[in-house]
Amino acid sequence: MTTIFGKIITGELPAEKVFENERILAIKDLHPKAPVHLLIMPKKEIPNLQSVEEVDLPLIGEIITVAQSLASEYDIADGYRLIVNNGATAGQSVSHLHFHLIGGKNLGGMA
Ligand code: 5GP
């Protein structure tokens, strides 16, 4: 099923892109929870973290590399969170795997 993020990836819906290559897209979150709140996602339609298969692991590794680069670019490399909400009970609202890169303020402890 195509999601909002699927439509952003194909260009059917707009987004503020901060990184893109053939496999990965990173955008600014529409409702940021911190001064820096980016969403990094594979272009491949993977619904959630639990669906990731062994074949996808290089892609997940590349997403982490992209997160590191963006953290440096946005000057938050010394303190950030990289979060995946897996499933509705964990707060996942869009069924297309995405990593939240959050920082730019004191994030405190985990709730
Ligand atoms: P989730 O709750 O699934 O972990 O995260 C979904 C995130 O996507 C939320 O932080 C929400 O603010 C963001 N979001 C929802 N719709 C859009 C949209 O159309 N554009 C962008 N850039 N972000 C969105």
Helices, strands, pairings?
Elements: H1 4-10, E1 17-20, E2 24-28, E3 36-42, H2 57-73, E4 80-83, E5 99-103
Antiparallel strand pairs: 1-2, 2-3, 3-5, 4-5
Bound molecules: guanosine-5'-monophosphate.
Would you write up a description of this structure?
The chain is built from two helices and five strands. The radius of gyration is 13 Å and the shape is globular. By secondary structure, the chain is an alpha+beta fold. Strands 1-2-3-5-4 form a five-stranded antiparallel beta sheet, covered by helices on one side. A hairpin with a 3-residue loop joins strand 1 and strand 2 (24-28). Bound molecules: guanosine-5'-monophosphate. Guanosine-5'-monophosphate (5GP) binds next to strand 2.
Mean pLDDT: 97
Write down how many β-strands occur, each being a DSSP E stretch of 2 or more residues: 5
Ligands, ions, cofactors: guanosine-5'-monophosphate
Q: What is the overall shape?
A: globular
User: Into which percent range does the helicity of residues fall?
Assistant: 10-25%
> What composes the largest sheet?
5 strands, antiparallel
Topology pattern, helix = H, strand = E: HEEEHEE
Oligomeric assembly: single chain
Uncertain runs with pLDDT below 50, 5 residues or more? none
Overall radius of gyration = 13 Å
SS element count, helices: 2
**Distance from first to last alpha carbon:** 32 Å
What percentage of the residues does DSSP assign to strands (E)? 15-25%
Structural class: alpha+beta
